[in-house]
Amino acid sequence: MKILIVGGGGREHAIAYKVAQSPKADKIYCAPGNAGIAEYAECVDIAATDIPNLVEFAKKEAIDLTIIGMDDPLVAGIVDAFEAEGLRVFGPRKNAALLEGSKAFSKDLMKKYNIPTAAYENFDTPEAALAYLETSKFPIVLKADGLALGKGVLICNTLEEAKDGVRSIMLDKQFGSAGNRLVVEEFMTGREVSVLSFCDGETVKIMTSAQDHKRAKDGDQGLNTGGMGTFSPSPFYTDEVDEFCKKYVYQATMDAMKAEGRPFKGIIFFGLMLTTEGPKVLEYNARFGDPETQVVLPRMKNDIVEVFEACVDGKLGDIELEFEDNAAVCVVLASAGYPEHYEKGFVISGLDAFKDKEGYYVFHAGTKKTEEGIITNGGRVLGVTAKGANLVEARANAYEAVKWIDFDNKYMRTDIGKAIDEA
C-alpha cells in the first residue's frame, strides 16, 4: 500500500514509526513531515491545511490510504474532500470533527445524552459571560470554544482573574477566532487520565491509558502548553474506572454522535477527570493526542494499518487491540521560553544515540534538516520516550535518555510521571 500521513509533529512521527512496521506499507509519504519522519517517509512540501493540494497529490500518486494526524484539517473538512474524490481516508468527517472543533457543541452533546461532565454555560458575548461570573464560585475554568493548539483553557482563582480571562479570550482574541464563543465551566479536582480510542461509526475500541502534563513548569506551574510529557499506563485508571467509562462514556459518545447524524470514524481522545463523584469528561479530541501517542503506539502490538482499515470499512468489531504488558514515559525537550517567546535554529546533537537501542525512541516535533545538521524549529522540539518493565523503570530510562541529546536553550520538566510515586 501507498500511505500518506498528514501533519508534521511528534504525533505524526509516532504514527509514521508504527505504520512503517506494517507489512502492508510499501511506501509512506508525509505532508509536510519533519526531519525525524524523513527516516520512515518521503516528506512532501504541502501544508497540512492545504486540502486541495493534498487531494491532488493523493490522486496523482494513487495513495491507498491517507491518515489525518492534525485537528485543523479535520475540522476544515479534509475527510469530506478526500471522500468526494473516492479516496480512502482515516479520520472523522467535518460534521463529526465538531466534537473537538467546538467545545460548546461537545458540552451540549454530553448534557443531552447524560454523559458525565462538569457543569457549564456557553456564552456568545463577553457582557453575558462577565455578568454570569458575578454569581459564580471560584476557581472556575474558561475555555475558548474553538481550536487553540491545546492552549485555549484558563483556570481562574478569583473573580478579577476570570474577568481578565473573558476579556483576553473574547475581546483581545488571545486565541484568535477560537474565542468568539466561550464555555465557562465548573472547576473539577482529581486525577486526569487520557484514553485514546479507535472508532468506526458504530464500535469504539479503547487503547491503553495515559496521562499528560500540560503546564510548562515543574509542579504543574506556568502556562498551558501542547504537552510537556506523558506516561502510560495510568495507575489511576483502574478496572472500576474502565467499567464505568465503557458503559457511560465511550459507547455513549459513539451512540450520541450517531443519533445526531454525525457518525464518528477515526480517533476519539477522551480527556477524563477522576473526581470523587466518579469519572467525568474534561474534553474530547478528534485525533491522536500529542504527546500521548508517543507512549501509546510503541506499546501497541497490532498492525496499525489493519486497524485503520477496519475503522474505514466499519469492521472494527473484528479487531482485538493488544498492548504490551509494560510501561512507557515521554519527556518533551522544548526551547526555553515555550509556550511564549523562544528562539529557533540551534543544532541538535546526540540523535544517533537512539539508533538500534531497543525500547528507546526520539520523536521529532519541531525540527528541520539543514546543511549544518538537524536544527530546532519549534517550541516543542523532541519527545524522548523510553519503555520499562514498569512505570518507575520507564521514567528512569526516559530521564537517562534525555541526557544523550543536547542543543542550546534545551528545556524540560524534571517531574514527568512523578505522580507514579504517589500511586
UniProtKB/TrEMBL annotation:
Residues 107-313 form the ATP-grasp domain. PROSITE patterns: ATP_GRASP, GARS. This is Phosphoribosylamine--glycine ligase. NCBIfam families: purD. It comes from Anaerobium acetethylicum. It catalyses: 5-phospho-beta-D-ribosylamine + glycine + ATP = N(1)-(5-phospho-beta-D-ribosyl)glycinamide + ADP + phosphate + H(+). Pfam families: GARS_A, GARS_C, GARS_N. It is an enzyme of class 6 (ligase). Keywords: ATP-binding, Ligase, Manganese, Metal-binding, Nucleotide-binding, Purine biosynthesis.
